[in-house]
Every structure is written in structure tokens, then in C-alpha cells.
Specification:
Helix 2 runs antiparallel to helix 3 and helix 17 runs antiparallel to helix 18. With 478 residues, this protein is mostly helical. The protein folds into two domains: 178 residues, Growth Hormone, Chain: A, CATH 1.20.1250; 270 residues, Growth Hormone, Chain: A (Up-down Bundle), CATH 1.20.1250. It contains 25 helices and no strands. The two termini are 25 Å apart.
């Protein structure tokens, strides 16, 4: 309690704001792929471009929005960000055309891009050298608590009405507007007196300096591979579970052991919604991050990254190999162990390989591969998944091969109903036939290959480029 009392009120306000923001964001984001495809009837290609482009923007723009926030103030920026969130969530629940939903989600994305650098900066400004580790530990715990609660609430609400999902996210953001307006105090900071145009020009120059260093650019491209693979957890897995897995198997197994828990995670129809499985990643992080971190701190950063990326690659592969959702839960555990091992070490490795006078500059560029991984991940979960594993696409191909021509322009969420009427089979029979005929699980080859390219590339990069250049990389985490 003495340690907790060291933090000012704004620190606790910022943590509360972060929890509610993650509640609002993940409450929608974890069900977004299903909403776009199963409810609105968009194609996987459309879903991939929408989710990939906007989330890439969320991670690319903060380097610029952070500079703007330094000019207009953190509080004003937060109120602006949450206003954009609120408007975007409202519009997403009302719009149904692809262009309008894309535009509404982009508004949410702009809000997130403004929010991200401010909240981290607030935590940094309201902690001291003595309590910063504890402070950020509390902060990341709030991140995962919000990421756990939001999807659980949304999973229950969407069974009643999809509109309630958006209202839930709007409620979380509305509470944040009140918190910031009445309780958030601008932290002490050094204000940038340079003209905004000069500040943005300087940021652009710094990005150019970073990406024209071919050694550093190569490292960033390798890390793009990890984030591309990682994002399949959000972009592809919910759709794959929705289309191919019979989650009643998981529900019944759990119900025989713990009926109360089964009913809690169940959807009221004897099965489990995909977002509940997806939410296991955040649950595992809350449980095991400290344990994993205690082992990782003893490793060299490159070794931690290689081991983590390799384990995550295996985890992603296992998610798409089996039709049994029980194996999916275990696969997410494997993936989470890899994520917790490799992801936190990326920035520290950048600090080791960067030239001494460019460390801060290069470490600030760690957002670039995250943005790139979101964009490329969206493409893989869209165009590539649609060709290899999308059930409506494969079902249309199957019907055409058997002399049945679906109506031109039929929506993806209408294909199964048409097929059951014309093939005279139920949905489960059709799913079994398509699984055996087209092997949609083979999509795992794509994701595993990308992960292994990153793993092998990092090993070769460290051995033949970094070590031969004489750059010391033997440090361990502190």
C-alpha cells in the first residue's frame, strides 16, 4: 500500500482510462471479423483489407499524433480521441455498406492513433525511476484486464443483438470522456516549442534515416513476419472457428467437469462463441507473464526472440490443423507462451544493435513492423484465406462442380442456406464434405512458413550481419 500511495491521482486515472479503452476496443475487435463476414456478409477479402489497413494505421500514425498532442496538450488530445472513438463505434453499428463501415472503423482508428502515445506518456510522466517498473506492471495488467472483460461482455451481448456490442463499447468510451474531463490532470512535461510543421518534418526525416539503414530495415522486415503471424489470432482464427469447428464439443466436455464455467463461457445454445476461445490469449498472459518473464530475463534477447517466434509459429499452426476446439484452446496456450517469450524482447534487441547515437531514434521505430504486420496480416486473412479456406467460397466451388449455380452476387452469409436447400444436406454434413474435399486446414502451412522465415532469418541476421559487424548483442534484460 505504501508503494501504491507513491503514485499520483492522474496515474490511477490513466490506468482506469486504459482499462476502459481496451474494454471498448477489444470488445469490438475480437468479434469484428465475425460481424463483418457472418452478419454483414462481407467477403474475407473485404474483411482483410478493412481490418488490416485500419489497424496498420493505428500503429503507424502515433509517431505523428504524439507530436500533435505535445502541442495541443494531453487532455485535449484524449478528449478528441475518445470523441472519435464514440462517433466511430456509433456509426459502425448503424452502417451496413462496405465503404461506410470502412470509413466508420477508420474514425475509430484515428481515435486509437491519438490515444496510444498519450496514455503511455502519461504513465511515464507520473512514475519515477524508483517505481516505474511497478507502474508499468500495473499498467499492462490493466491492459489485459480490459482485453479480457470486453470480449466476454460482447460475446454475451451479441447473442441478444449485435447493436448492443457497439453500445457496450460506446459506454466504456463514454465513461472515459467523463474520467478525462473531470479527473485527469495534465502531467508535468517539457513542451515542444518548435512549429508543428518542423516537428512533423523532423519525424519524417527520422523515419527516412531508419529505413535507409539496410541492416536495420532488414531486421524490421523480419519482425514484420512475426506480427503478420501474430495477427492471425484476431483476423483469421475467429472466422476459422466459426466456419469449421464444432464448439459444442468443448462446451460438453467442460460442462461434464464444471457446469457453471461451461454456462459462463457458453452462448446459451450449447456451444462456445469464437471470441471466447480467442480471449484465452489474454487470460494466459495474465496468468503466466510473470513466470515466463522470469525465465526470459536470463536469456540473450536474440535467443528469446528466436525461441518465442518458433513456439508462436507452432501454436498458430496447431490452431488451424484440428477440427476439435479443445485442441484449439491448447494451441492458443502454446502460442501465448511464444508471444510472452519473444514479443517483449524486440525493443531491447533494437537497443543493442543500434548505433549509440541512434538508439532512441531506432527504438522509436519499433512501431513500423507492427504496422506492417497488421497490413500484411490483413491481406493473408483476406485474399489468401478466401482462396484456401473460406467455407462460402469453397462451397460455391463445390456446388458449381456438381452443376448447381448460386445466384450472382450472393452474400457469404447466405451461401449455406442456399446450399442446404439445393444439396439436400444439413450444415454439418456440408462442413464435413468440404473439410475432406478441400482441406481448409492447410492454411496452417502459410502461417507457419511466415513464422519460420522470421525465425531462420533472425538466426542468420544475428550470426552473419550483426556479429560480423562487431555489434555487441550479449546483453540480458534488466
Amino acid at each position: 500500500m505504501k508503494l501504491f500511495k507513491q503514485f499520483p491521482k492522474t496515474f490511477w486515472v490513466a490506468n482506469s482510462v486504459e482499462l476502459l479503452e481496451r474494454w471498448g476496443w477489444y470488445g469490438l475487435f475480437n468479434v469484428l471479423a465475425i460481424y463483418l463476414t457472418s452478419y454483414l456478409g462481407f467477403t474475407q477479402d473485404q474483411k482483410g483489407w478493412l481490418m488490416g489497413t485500419v489497424t496498420a494505421m493505428v500503429y503507424f500514425l502515433p509517431v505523428f499524433t504524439g507530436a500533435i498532442s505535445d502541442k495541443i496538450g494531453y487532455k485535449t488530445s484524449l478528449l478528441t480521441a475518445f470523441s472519435l472513438y464514440f462517433i466511430g463505434f456509433y456509426l459502425m453499428g448503424k452502417m451496413h455498406s462496405y465503404v461506410s463501415v470502412f470509413a466508420a472503423f477508420a474514425i475509430v482508428g484515428f481515435g486509437a492513433a491519438i490515444f496510444k502515445p498519450i496514455i503511455s506518456a502519461t504513465i511515464s510522466k507520473t512514475t519515477t525511476e524508483k517505481n516505474t517498473i511497478l507502474g508499468f506492471g500495473i499498467f499492462y495488467m490493466m491492459v489485459n484486464i480490459g482485453a479480457l472483460i470486453g470480449p466476454v461482455v460482447s460475446s454475451k451481448l451479441r447473442e441478444v443483438n449485435w447493436q448492443w456490442v457497439f453500445f457496450s463499447s460506446m459506454l466504456a468510451i463514454g465513461l472515459n470522456i467523463l474520467l478525462v474531463a473531470f479527473l485527469y490532470k495534465e502531467p508535468d512535461r517539457v513542451r515542444n516549442s518548435d512549429p508543428l510543421r518542423e516537428t512533423i518534418a523532423k519525424i519524417g526525416k527520422n523515419i527516412w534515416i531508419a529505413i535507409t539503414d539496410w541492416k536495420f530495415l532488414l531486421f524490421l522486415l523480419l519482425i514484420v513476419g512475426f506480427w503478420t503471424m501474430y495477427n492471425q489470432l484476431f483476423f483469421t482464427l475467429p472466422v476459422f472457428v466459426e466456419q469449421w469447428l464444432d464448439t459444442s464439443i468443448l462446451y460438453n466436455a467442460l460442462h461434464s467437469l464444471w457446469p457453471g464455467l461451461a454456462n459462463f463461457i457458453g452462448n446459451g445454445h450449447g456451444s462456445v462463441n469464437p471470441e471466447m476461445l480467442l480471449n484465452m490469449d489474454a487470460f494466459y498472459i495474465v496468468l503466466f507473464q510473470l513466470i515466463i518473464s522470469s525465465f526470459v530475463t536470463r536469456m540473450k534477447p536474440i535467443r528469446a526472440m528466436v525461441i518465442g517466434f518458433f513456439i508462436a509459429s507452432i501454436g498458430v499452426s496447431l490452431m488451424f490443423i484440428f477440427k476439435n476446439p479443445i485442441y484449439t484452446v491448447l494451441a492458443i496456450l502454446v502460442f501465448s507462451i511464444g508471444e510472452m517469450t519473444g514479443s517483449p524482447t524486440i525493443t531491447s534487441y533494437i537497443g543493442l544493435i543500434a548505433e549509440k547515437d541512434k538508439k532512441a531514434l531506432y527504438m522509436g521505430m519499433s512501431f513500423l513492423p507492427v504496422a506492417g504486420g497488421n497490413f500484411l496480416g490483413g491481406y493473408l486473412s483476406g485474399s489468401v484465406y478466401q482462396r484456401l479456406a473460406d467455407k462460402p467460397t469453397l462451397l460455391i466451388n463445390y456446388m458449381k462442380a456438381h452443376g448447381i449455380q448460386p445466384p450472382t452476387g450472393i452474400k457469404s452469409n447466405e451461401v449455406m442456406k442456399f446450399a442446404t436447400e439445393h444439396l439436400h444436406m444439413n450444415a454439418q454434413q456440408i462442413t464435413d464434405i468440404l473439410w475432406k474435399a478441400y482441406h481448409p486446414s492447410h492454411i496452417w502451412y502459410v502461417f507457419f512458413s511466415i513464422g519460420m522465415i522470421a525465425v531462420i532469418g533472425l538466426i542468420l541476421y544475428d550470426r552473419f550481419i550483426i556479429k560480423k559487424s562487431g555489434t555487441p548483442t550479449n546483453g540480458t534484460h534488466e
